[in-house]
Write a structure and sequence with these properties.
The complex is a heterodimer. Chain A is of the alpha/beta class. In chain A, 30% of the residues lie in helices and 23% in strands. In chain A, helix 1 crosses helix 2 and helix 4 (164-175) crosses helix 7 (213-229). By secondary structure, chain B is of the alpha/beta class. A 5-stranded parallel β-sheet of chain B has the order 7-6-5-8-9, with helices on one face. In chain B, strands 2-1-3-4 form a 4-stranded parallel β-sheet, with helices on both faces. In chain B, helix 4 links the parallel strand 3 (101-106) and strand 4. Chain B is globular and about 55 Å long. The chains are: A alpha/beta, B alpha/beta. Chain A binds chain B through residues 192, 195, 198-209, 211, 275-276, 317, 320-325, and chain B through 8, 86-88, 106, 108-111, 113-114, 128-132, 166, 169, 192-195, 197-198, 228.
Chain lengths: 435, 300
């Protein structure tokens, strides 16, 4: 009764938060869908059986925030290499930021990205369109055109929309398409050429400071606009305690606001900059220990919805320079899982909550396929060996770039299998369209 | 012997051992040209200035030539840097020419540390961004050491744009290491966050602190900061933070006044104070040559 190409995941611990499941169950995948979930499924003829006993079986991870650099900066990453990194990290779907060259502010660029993703045939790629043309903050991009071409949200990521009037009208225009407006919150008059977070480390190193208010004041502004005109506001890479507090208050009011956090912001604080380590330079910057504590609490209690990597590949020429001149950002797709599991081991997150943050909740808030494993759902599955100990080595990344602040870190937890649409895309270190 | 990147790398014994070396260098310079060629004779020093300088560059050059070294001066204008060459590439090229030392001034904090990763030569930080200016702190503390002998129980005010000052950071560290108390005096907009963790106390009340300190180090006010609204105007800044003749009169009788230069006369310091009996401004410059000569002897 089972057709060719069916996969039976046998003996794993199924953690499927959307269905409230955390139990040892077999999962049968067939014709790109979840066909059956039961305590013991017998493999039929031609079914490929994968023994995943002792492993976690979860809905595929979904990263709401990656930079795949194509088109325009293919020397840093391409949609192919970025997709390889994604499936290696357990991600079955990624939302690709529009700060490409040219900017993804038109159907042509969106379609190019989707074509490249189809050619790569690895993970699902969801383009994010620009809020404003060329990310310049001057004129709205054609959002309806972008949505019709396949964009799932709009954002000027990396370029805050400094005009409150522009942001208000973006929220208004986007809401008729139920489109999330993803915001990089930074008041440029407050960050003011700064290179790292305001505090003792910036002071010692003589680096111009970026105060928390640069982020928090813009969050406050946009929440006021959201309350006034409606829509869906999504806060990218939340980095400070003040933002978390505003987010909680906005939730209480019932505003439609969601938020993501990056692994580097919940694992590292400003001390990681050390002696001008440009791999610890990102925007928003690494914050103070009190901010990290607040973010972890918000991840645990549901205030923050999603873990997103802000995967930002850069080459050595962008990082082996003076700190203030170094490009912002780190690669993150291949280290997100073990860094998240650090919070599970620290007792901050339950395994179920960790999977929610990596998979079910991001799928839900962006209304993307996947994120759960009910019968009939897409067969997007990640299998995790939560106890595997390994050492981060950027040279072994599938990504084209190696800019990680976690080089040499001993971590625990590794993706062993990634299945997208019922096909095995990642298997114990190997990547392929149909392994 | 290693590079000179930051005063945070120097402990107290090292500083205290250095001052007599600087004193010997001062005496040697006052005695005219070296009678015998020094062991550094014939080696050369690259003065790389990515930012303007008068005192620092000239004093490194004077110090090096007094030891029989040759000096190549380079500044950013008209170089390959304007063609987009990266700092690591520039340094690899300079280093391949075989200098014994690279003296670098750079507008970016941390640049000398980056240079040190690529150079075989000894790297001397001659001022990097808003980070450190360690040879300035050595000459400032040497100037005070000659007057005081010991720093225990001494209290020094560093006054002005602390946020953007590499001189303030290096002096704060050196003075604390030597056992002095340091109070940073600046408007809140120009006091960096968390600077207390470097061992300083802070205040915005210059008038209140004046009678309590043994030395006042005035910082140069970067007038262009007015455009960025760190203060409303030079005039308004001066109303609270300029070392005027009236304020000078409230200092302890034996209190000293220092300024690293270049001075904005009438802005952060009145001419009469800068040229007055408490002022060590020109001693600082004279000692600067001796300190840098001693540095080359110690480091190379």
């Amino acid at each position: 009764m089972t057709g060719p190409g069916a996969i039976l995941l046998k003996g794993g611990r199924l953690i499927d938060p959307a269905n409230g499941t955390d139990a040892v169950l077999d999962v049968l995948l067939e014709e790109g869908r979840v066909a059956r979930v039961a305590p013991s499924i017998d493999a039929g003829q031609g079914v490929r059986v994968l023994d995943v006993s002792g492993r976690w079986v979860t809905p595929g991870f979904i990263d709401l925030h990656v930079h795949l650099r194509e088109p325009g900066q293919e020397h840093k990453e391409t949609i192919l290499t970025g997709s390889r990194a994604a499936v290696a990290g357990g991600f079955t779907g990624v939302v690709a930021m529009p700060n490409t060259a040219p900017t993804n502010d038109s159907r042509l660029v969106t379609e190019l990205m989707l074509t490249r993703a189809q050619e790569a045939d690895l993970c699902r790629l969801y383009p994010a369109g620009a809020i404003t043309r060329g990310l310049e903050g001057k004129q709205l991009a054609d959002h309806a055109e972008l949505v019709d071409a396949g964009c799932v949200c709009i954002t000027d990521d990396g370029h805050p929309v400094m005009s409150a009037g522009m942001m208000r009208r973006a929220l208004q225009w986007a809401q008729q398409m139920s489109l999330p407006v993803m915001v990089h919150e930074e008041d440029l008059t407050l960050s003011h050429r700064g290179a790292m977070t305001e505090g003792a480390v910036a002071t010692r190193l003589g680096l111009l400071p970026i105060p928390a208010s640069a982020e928090v004041s813009m969050v406050a502004r946009d929440l006021v606009l959201l309350e006034e005109v409606g829509g869906h506001l999504h806060l990218a890479h939340v980095s400070c305690r003040g933002t978390v507090e505003l987010l909680r208050a906005a939730r209480k009011k019932g505003l439609h606001v969601t938020a993501e956090v990056t692994p580097h912001h919940f694992v590292l604080d400003h001390a990681a900059v050390g002696d001008y380590d440009t791999h610890a330079k990102m925007n928003p910057p690494l914050r103070l220990p009190e901010d990290v504590r607040a973010i972890r609490e918000a991840m645990a209690d549901g205030t923050i919805d999603a873990i997103a990597t802000d995967h930002a590949p850069h080459g050595p020429a962008d990082k082996e320079v003076e700190f203030s001149r170094a490009m912002n950002g780190v690669v993150g797709l291949e280290t997100a899982l073990p860094l998240t599991l650090e919070l599970v081991r620290d007792g901050v997150l339950t395994p179920k909550r960790a999977v929610e943050l990596l998979s079910s909740r991001p799928a839900e808030i962006f209304r993307l396929p996947g994120g759960r494993l009910s019968v009939g759902d897409p067969a997007d599955v990640t299998v995790v060996d939560a106890d595997a100990v390994w050492t981060v080595d950027a040279a072994a990344f599938h990504s084209k770039s190696m800019n990680t602040p976690f080089q040499g870190r001993e971590v625990r937890g590794r993706v062993t299998h990634t299945v997208v649409g019922g096909k095995l895309k990642f298997l114990e270190g190997a990547v392929g369209a149909d392994l | 012997m290693g590079h000179l990147l930051a005063m945070t790398d120097w402990d107290r014994p090292r500083l205290e051992a250095f001052f007599p070396r600087a004193q010997a260098a001062l005496e040697a310079l006052e005695g005219g040209p070296a009678p015998v060629p020094s062991r550094l004779a014939g080696r050369w020093l690259a003065n790389l200035f990515f930012e303007d300088s008068t005192r620092t560059r000239l004093s490194f050059e004077t110090a090096a030539t007094s030891l029989g070294m040759r000096v190549a001066n380079w500044s950013e204008g008209g170089s390959s840097v304007s063609k987009g060459e990266s700092l690591p590439d520039t340094i690899r090229s300079v280093d391949a020419m075989g200098p014994a030392a690279i003296v670098i001034r750079h507008p970016q904090s941390g640049a000398p540390g980056l240079v040190a990763r690529y150079a075989k030569a000894v790297v001397i930080n001659a001022g990097d961004g808003t980070h450190e200016h360690p040879s300035q702190a050595l000459l400032d503390t040497f100037t005070l050491w000659k007057r005081w002998g010991s720093f225990e129980g001494r209290r020094v005010a560093i006054v002005g744009d602390v946020l953007h000052s590499r001189v303030a950071r290096s002096n704060l560290t050196a003075l604390r290491t030597l056992g002095a108390e340091v109070v940073l005096v600046a408007p809140p907009s120009l006091l960096p966050a968390g600077v207390e963790e470097m061992g300083a106390s802070t205040t915005s009340d210059f008038d209140a602190i004046l009678p309590e300190v043994d030395a006042v180090m005035m910082l140069r006010l970067q007038i262009e900061r007015q455009k960025e609204a760190f203060f409303p105007s030079v005039r308004d800044y001066g109303r609270r933070f300029s070392l005027t003749e009236a304020r000078e009169k409230t200092l302890k009788p034996e209190a000293l006044v220092l300024h690293p230069g270049p001075m904005n006369r009438g802005v952060e310091i009145a001419s009469a104070v800068a040229d007055g009996p408490r002022s060590l401004v020109l001693s600082q410059v004279t000692y600067g040559v001796a300190v840098r000569r001693a540095l080359l002897e110690v480091l190379l």
